[in-house]
Design a protein that fits this description.
Subunit structure (chains A, B): Homodimer and heterodimers.
Number of helices of chain A: 4
GO biological process, one term (chains A, B): cell wall organization
Strand content of chain A: under 5%
Keywords (chains A, B): Cell membrane, Cell wall biogenesis/degradation, Membrane, Transmembrane, Transmembrane helix
Protein name (chains A, B): CASP-like protein
Largest interface: A-B, 49 and 49 residues
Oligomer: homodimer
Number of domains of chain A: 1
Family (chains A, B): Belongs to the Casparian strip membrane proteins (CASP) family.
Shape of chain A: elongated
Number of strands of chain A: 0
Distance between the termini of chain A: 34 Å
Chain lengths: 193, 193
């Protein structure tokens, strides 16, 4: 009778601990799988943006008529920065995939998650800087600015403007994905105990 | 003798746990104090940027000679966005200070840290977008662009250009501080156990 009571007490005090531990491991694993998935989406988005912006000069044959007004992404430094930022973030995301997969196997790892949070935040800043600088120039190309005497160039370069505007979408999607990735890593760190 | 051994065993198994617990609390508190400090620095940086950009039209009296070329931050939408982004981030940082102070008192809080990580990341994206869009236009104002037929306006508006260039510094400093804040929150979450 006494022994049973002890065992029962022992079980009842262990059970919530074990359950919490399993739940934490489950949350960590689910978060890690979502992490890998979102990283793949972000890779696709940044590649799409970089390629779409980077190939704009080749795909518009009618620009050959205007010899001095041929429009390329490399004519504007902001667009070159945009392509570079997307390429760097994409490379980082590819390199971070193995670490992210390790987290599925070991959901309780925390220092490696810390490293990912730091680099994710830095890459979020880099990608946002590239996307936003390009967006500022795209806006100027569409609207121009009367006060600064800068004319809208999209009247002449209609298809060019459409393409560069479209290529921003991938970067802005990747920004949202990176914010989600930072949050997921923090969630995994918070639930790990 | 038996009793002594049991107590000794009990102490030796408890001691590392208590030490680890105290150390984790200490790290959490130190991180929370650094968090509040960095938030104050970021508030000063974003206020400085917003005010410096926002007051540029008032402090350059020689612009009154040029009636149609008077330079204000509100002439360019990117600068208006820059001021708005800095103001929003500054407001958020002021509102987050009380929560950050709560973390000094309760270093083990984790869901509130999770909320801070998420909003810090979102504010990092907003601030970077504002700073980068303004930087792209500042670059254009300094260098112009031959291909797009946009002329550099900094030859005429020298002081204006100096001020708007200078006002970017605060935003870029605040960006670095926000990345540090995200890392610190993640560090506090990782060490909390």
């Amino acid at each position: 009778m006494m022994k049973d009571a002890v065992i029962e007490h022992g079980e009842s005090s262990m059970a919530p601990l074990v359950a919490a531990s399993v739940a934490a491991g489950g949350v960590g694993r689910a978060v890690s799988i979502a992490d890998v998935f979102l990283r793949f989406l972000a890779i696709v988005a940044t590649i799409g943006s970089a390629v779409s912006m980077g190939t704009t000069n080749e795909t518009l044959p009618f620009f050959t008529q205007f010899i001095q007004f041929e429009a390329k992404y490399s004519d504007l430094p902001s667009f070159t920065f945009f392509v570079a930022a997307n390429a760097v973030v994409c490379t980082y995301l590819v390199l971070s995939i193995p670490l992210s997969i390790v987290h599925i196997v070991r959901p309780r790892a925390h220092y490696s998650r810390l490293i990912l949070v730091f680099f994710d935040a830095a890459m979020l800043a880099l990608l946002t800087a590239g996307a936003s600088a390009a967006a500022a120039i795209v806006y100027l190309a569409h609207k121009g600015n009367v006060r600064a005497n800068w004319f809208a160039i999209c009247q002449q370069f209609d298809s060019f403007c459409e393409r560069i505007s479209g290529s921003l979408i991938g970067s802005f999607a990747a920004m949202v994905l990176l914010i989600a990735l930072i949050f997921l890593s923090a969630l995994a760190l918070a639930r790990r105990h």
